[in-house]
Design goal:
By secondary structure, chain A is of the alpha/beta class. Chain A contains 10 helices and 14 strands. Chain A folds into 2 domains: 222 residues, 3-Layer(aba) Sandwich (Rossmann fold); 61 residues, Alpha-Beta Plaits. In chain A, the strands form 3 sheets. A 6-stranded mixed sheet of chain A has the order 6-7-8-3-9-10, with helices on both faces. Classes of the chains: A alpha/beta (312), B mainly alpha (263).
């Protein structure tokens, strides 16, 4: 699979009066064409800085980066990519259609082709009925959808979306998420920076978790989240059996007569079930749980390891 | 070119909607309309004083408009993040900068034309002067004023590539004041003293700082009610060429700085 983005020891440093601060430190990233890639990290991790470097809005201090097979800084590749910044602002005196017309002109689109493309996109993001309204009258969700529409004007191969669902209500949230999934169906590569981990978990193929400018974890989501937990709920479990079950990797909690056993899936939980049944206890439910991205994120950020990982 | 005109059009559209600019223009227009009444109290020839005063008001209002409009052009784009979506498109930074500049000059031209039309009407009514030749002492300086303001906007644009709006406001203001007083300064330090440190400084400043004074023909325009130097097409053309050369140099410098700037 060809690479849509490749960075090699990409670094961005700023000098303060007393020291040099690496906002992004020797970043090695590989994003394959046609995938949705989640770029995660706490505030100040260097996500937006990385995106800005890849778009040549700011310049790297050292290292290399290629986007769609060309070194960054080559304006020609900007014809094939698009960017939706976090909390974008549009010229509020313009209508949705005028905004798209403005951005279309930046791509040198003209005449009927331009008008047709704009109408198609307004339909695509479900804003055809609001096309004549000034942006100042748009809700946040509508503004985000017009932002997505402007980012699709050039039918890009690669989209950079910075916090595309931040601050949206649940309906707008789902709409934007569905639009992103449709982009993958169309073969586009989507690079998403987001704090919305549930969204990332649902739609991304691979992720990288960044902290203090360094990649801590990078790989396929399925691989990274492998190794989950099993939750067993039982009733009538004798006290002595509870003590036998209680060991490393198992969290036991009591809710009335019910005992909830939360165990890592590496622990032989079948033995617990057999023991409970043998002691005349009742198994109410057994729920296998995949490790959540949130768990991985918290583990990664709290970990002191400084590994430029690449797990797949 | 399509990108430049698209950016210029958007900049113009936004500028003419900015309330602060409209307020400045309304204050200027009010003063222009009230000036005939004030000038009638003058002991000097009413006609000359009136022209001097209205052209002075026009110049000050235009200068405030030009600086206010231009100093925020780039910072606003960065603050609102609009620049990110634009620069992520196949748009060169030079195209962005020139588009912003042309848009602001377009907005300035519209405002200046509006004020000049109001001024001409007020002047014509007060002076009962309806022929073009009678109005020429205002039309010609106002026309050159547009070049002055375009040059001032280029100065502000250059400073905005590396300074904050407040610092830019003062720097541009200083350049405008020195540039306006360039001829008397040059006269004092170079013509009268042919050597010495101040003479060298004045000579350097004479070439580096745009000479706004040479684009001001308001004093010549009023003498005897006839167009003096302003009527000299060569003089006006030289002034316009000088302004265009400085604008070109300032825009090139702006692009060089802005190309390396992290936004």
């Amino acid at each position: 699979m060809a690479l849509a983005i490749r960075t090699e020891a990409l670094t961005k440093a700023y000098k303060t009066r007393t020291r040099r601060v690496d906002v992004v430190h020797k970043l090695n990233l590989e994003v394959e064409e046609g995938e949705i890639f989640g770029f995660l990290g706490p505030n100040g991790a260097g996500k937006t800085t990385t995106i800005k470097m890849l778009l040549s809005i700011i310049y790297p201090t050292s290292g290399k980066a290629e986007v769609l097979g060309k070194e960054i800084g080559n304006i020609a590749i900007h014809r094939k990519l698009s960017y939706l910044p976090e909390k974008p602002y549009y010229y509020e005196h313009m209508t949705g259609k005028e905004i798209l017309n403005f951005y279309a002109r930046l791509f040198n689109l003209r005449g009927d082709d331009k008008d047709k493309k704009i109408d198609e996109l307004l339909e695509y993001v479900n804003l055809a009925n609001a096309a004549g309204k000034p942006i100042s009258q748009y809700s946040k969700g509508m503004q985000q959808r017009i932002g997505l529409a402007q980012s699709l004007l050039n039918d890009p191969q690669l989209l950079f979306l910075d916090e595309p669902t931040a601050g949206l209500d649940p309906i707008a949230h789902v709409e934007i998420r569905d639009l992103i999934l449709r982009m993958r169906e169309q073969g586009k590569t989507v690079f998403i920076s987001s704090h919305e981990l549930s969204d990332v978990e649902r739609i991304c193929d691979r992720v990288a978790i960044l902290n203090t400018g360094r990649v801590k974890v990078q790989g396929k989501l399925d691989d990274l989240l492998r190794g989950g937990r099993v939750e067993i709920t039982a009733e009538g479990v004798p006290q002595d059996l509870r003590e036998k079950i209680n060991h490393d990797g198992v969290i036991i909690s009591q809710h009335g007569d019910r005992l909830i056993i939360d165990a890592a899936d590496t622990i032989p939980t079948a033995d617990f079930i057999d023991a409970i049944r043998a002691a005349k206890g009742t198994i109410v439910s057994i729920i296998p749980r995949r490790k959540r991205l949130e768990d991985l994120f918290v583990e990664t950020i709290q970990s002191k390891d400084d590994v430029d990982g690449s797990n797949g | 070119m399509n990108a430049i005109f698209a950016i210029a059009g958007t900049t113009l559209g936004e500028a003419i909607r900015r309330k602060v600019l409209l307020i400045i223009m309304m204050v200027g227009l009010t003063m222009l309309i009230l000036t005939p009444a004030i000038s009638s109290l003058s002991i000097r020839g009413q006609h000359d004083v009136l022209i001097q005063m209205v052209l002075g008001i026009l110049k000050i209002t235009s200068a405030i408009l030009a600086v206010t409009l231009t100093v925020y052009l780039l910072p606003n784009e960065v603050e609102r993040r609009t620049i990110y979506t634009i620069l992520s498109k196949p748009v060169l930074r030079s195209q962005f900068l020139i588009g912003k500049y042309l848009g602001s000059v377009g907005a300035l031209a519209i405002m200046l034309v509006m004020m000049t039309v109001v001024l001409l009407v007020a002047f014509a009514i007060q002076q009962s002067a309806w022929s073009v030749s009678q109005l020429m002492p205002i039309i010609q300086p106002a026309f050159l004023l547009l070049f002055q303001m375009a040059l001032l906007a280029a100065v502000a644009m250059f400073f905005s590539t590396f300074s904050t709006p407040v610092i830019n406001f003062f720097l541009t203001g200083l350049v405008f004041i020195f540039g306006t007083l360039m001829n008397p300064i040059f006269e004092t330090y170079v013509t009268r003293e042919s050597s010495g440190f101040m003479s060298i400084v004045a000579r350097v400043a004479h070439y580096v700082i745009p000479n706004f004074g040479s684009l001001d023909i308001s004093s010549g325009a009023t003498q005897g009610g006839q167009v003096m130097r302003g009527g000299d097409l060569v003089y006006m053309t030289q002034g316009m060429i000088m302004a265009l050369v400085y604008i070109g140099i300032l825009l090139i410098l702006s692009v060089l700085v802005f190309d390396n700037k992290e936004v």
